[in-house]
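_Per-residue structure_
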Amino acid sequence: MKKVKLLILGKSNVGKSSLINHLTQNHISLVSNKIHATRLSTFYDFKLKDFLIQFIDTPGISITDNNLLAKAMKSNAQKHFTNCDLIILLTQLQDSYDYESAIMEDIYSQISHI
């Protein structure tokens, strides 16, 4: 069975956990209207035919908050950048391109040596 690690990134409350629940057609990930419901990366394994898909549900990433909690949650998500097969950056339509660019630059700076 081939294992695929799928990392899901985005701001808090953008729908990362909801996406996992939708893709697996199961309520395996905690969903909340409360901001920062996911504070540590959480792993969910899902079997699909000959694949074991490991969803990595990350805390919301902020590019503007510099408080200790925001930094810790961003660091928690960043440690998975080089250890996954696919990264999904989930955004809302009203999110600025600056957010997406900053996250993509952050990812690229950590994986460019691979």
